[in-house]
């Protein structure tokens, strides 16, 4: 159990008031999470105390910054159960991590006639790069479809995963509707036909225990800013024996061992994949975020998400006849996100009504255009939860929705 | 309910519930599509422009929020029957109103009521979508596809 009122004291922004004194209710953590004081302070400490480029200087500050930077890398490795910190590559975000795989590993390993398999739940970041790879390589992009409740329809999975499949790239937890996918089971099926496995962990790593050894995936991509860390820092985990054989992505400083005018040899892992000055402050901030999450325990973070989701689904039953809620109903198969649509009020109008009550939600397609289109609506409203949210905030959301329905609902139209 | 009433005034709600000129035009000779990928608003605009460059008839089909639908309805109402040149003048005035520049309220009809949208930066795109679609339809002789992104 999380002590949420104590946790909330660690997040300065949560005491902010918006408009005419409405307390901020942050239900948009799937877009970006808020940051605890310890993360903010770690960045201040870095800039005030030991700002220096890493891996370069002989001086005291560079030694200190390098140690902190590499210490953060080790924290990430431990957090996701990686075999070594050599498997952790710093990127800007999940999108860059996935693109890195598309620009390196995929170039060598996807050939004409091969198949790349994704799910119908993918964020654009785990769909658009594979569209390009498939087009360039004359490979085929295949999609695991959805069942009625927007979980994956696995009835044809043994046809979809076949000897032509070279990569299964799948989201572990849908940012759009919250479905949690059985990535471990799907990874095992991919393994059986010799396909590589990439997991988009942008929403799962911040919200539940994720262990790359347990899933047995080759790649795991995630971002710092959705897990209490700063923006501009992300991670790509690559299984060691694959990383050893991968060509560098960006070329330049720090990723080289020896350079002549004609040629260059590569630095050892993982620095081979980190050309140029990296985001030192970001990495250190992400390390502080992991410390914070470890202090709470990821099982507890997950359970809190599930409890809030359950409370939301139970409360929303009141509006069930009119309100369409997407995703599986079992909180064990979905959590952290409640995405919904009401025929009488467009999500954008709902978002504005809630906003004026201090409640921040996301409206639109959530970077999952094909998915939202398949739901048969132009957009959905999405509330997303994290470790600092409370049942009272979920209740305030419900009150706000009811107010919007009074305002926009059938036959209404005057200010309620 | 705070200051929401300024945004969602009765006139806006009325245009949203019963949009004017909400139909496909059989004999349109200009048309354009507008799309706001961020929120999924979309509009198809049909115009019949006669030989004297007058907008003889106008119609639209749209899916979107109350602001985008009401704005489209108001827009079609105010440009129906005017010359292409006059419609462009009205378009410019609407744009100036939304960007908080000087504008002539008299010629905007019901659409003047959307002046409050300028206080809602996140909603400006909803209000201007149909107007940019109109501009696109007037500029091009054939079907145009525009976006406010």
Write up what this structure looks like.
The complex is a heterodimer of chains A (416) and B (149). With 416 residues, chain A is an alpha/beta fold. Chain A folds into two domains: 4-31 and 297-408, Aspartate Aminotransferase, domain 1; 39-294, 3-Layer(aba) Sandwich (Aspartate Aminotransferase, domain 2), CATH 3.40.640.10. Chain A is 37% helix and 16% strand. In chain A, the strands form five sheets. In chain A, strands 4-10-9-8-7-5-6 form a seven-stranded mixed sheet, sandwiched between helices. A four-stranded antiparallel sheet of chain A has the order 13-14-17-16, with helices on one face. In chain A, helix 2 (37-49) runs antiparallel to helix 11, helix 12 (298-316) packs parallel to helix 15 and helix 13 (347-355) crosses helix 15. Chain B has a single domain, classed as Sufe protein. Chain: A. By secondary structure, chain B is an alpha+beta fold. Chain B is globular, with a radius of gyration of 14 Å. Chain B has helices at residues 4-7, 10-17, 66-79, 84-98, 124-139, and strands at 30-36, 41-49, 55-63, 144-147. Chain B has a four-stranded mixed sheet with strand order 3-2-1-4, covered by helices on one side. Chain B contains five helices and four strands, in the order ααβββαααβ. In chain B, 44% of the residues are buried. In chain B, strand 1 and strand 2 (41-49) form a beta hairpin. Chain A binds chain B through residues 19-20, 346-349, 351-353, 355-357, 363-365, 369, 372, 377-379, 403, 407-408, 413-416, and chain B through 1-5, 7-8, 10, 13-14, 17, 37-42, 63-67, 120, 122-123, 126.
